[in-house]
Fold this protein.
Amino acid sequence: MIRPRALRWVAWFLYLSVLLAGLAVTLTDGGGWPRFAGFAAGLGAAAALEPLPLPETRPVAVAALAVRAGLFALLVVLDGGGIARVLFVLLPLTAYFTVGRRTAFWLGGAEVAGVALLVAGHPDAEAVTDVAMFAVGIVFALVLAVLAGREEAGRRRAEELLAELSDAHDRLRDYADRAVSLATVAERTRLARDIHDTVGHHLVVTAIQLEKAAAFRDREPATADRALADGRDATRAALREVRHAVAALRADGNEFELATALRALAARLHDPAFAVRLELDGESAALGESAALALYLAAQEALTNARRHAGANTVTIRADLTAGTLDIRDDGGGFAPGTVEGNGLRGMRERLATVGGALTVTSGPGGTRLLAAVPRR
């Protein structure tokens, strides 16, 4: 442990004051220079101990205090003016930081009692004043020790906080780097989901219409022409919905109206071989645009899956716009429990999760039921 700076400066100030007082006494008496030389050497030795670290263990600390007390006693003997005994105020000051506060207080009281006993045989005014001044010096030293101890504790705490702050800064920078990486992955996932849910859906519809046109080209040219027209419409719809999805992510109004979009979707996909029944209830004003768009894309993906994969003939969509739920049922072949979900269902779950919603899927030989729910605004 390093001595507090205040402790070192007080000690050096006392050493210098005692040295100057001894020099003044020697000059006044006109002799005793050898004695003064020994006195000055003793003060130099005591001052040289101040920069050294304080002992870490109690036995060593007690031994160091004893050595310092012996050195001060020698200086008192060599001192011709009696001022050297003021150095004993440094013992409680040092003891405070080495052997503890309680021992320092007891040591200071013992020193005052010892000085009082020394002058008890000739209690003149000057001796009483010396005892009082020495007691004041002890009190001053102990108060200074308390203040220096608090300052040292504050400095250590500040260093600990600085180290913790530096560590927290490093961790925060690491978290920021991870957040950037995760945001990049999330954005890529969102783009892949958007492509699958919009462009992919309409490409499926286009492919179905082209297959229909090829199948009816020779037998029913009018049906083939109609299928080609529907394919062109699906392609144009894909472009419109991509633009709308981008605009919806940027907009803060209510330009996207879920009921209208669901009606258009059902009308576009409905034909004699694939019936789409839509039941609407409530008002979609209670839904945020992102939530409404998530429900719409869930319905779109469900219809695509029912037509392309499940082989369904009929799909029923019950939409409670006020509650924010879509109940979609088809009469297709369904899929077995434990089947790994494809990109479509995963994309639906992820999109709904981004707006705080959820998807429940129930499937079996009688068909598949999807229940999508999003929170209200």
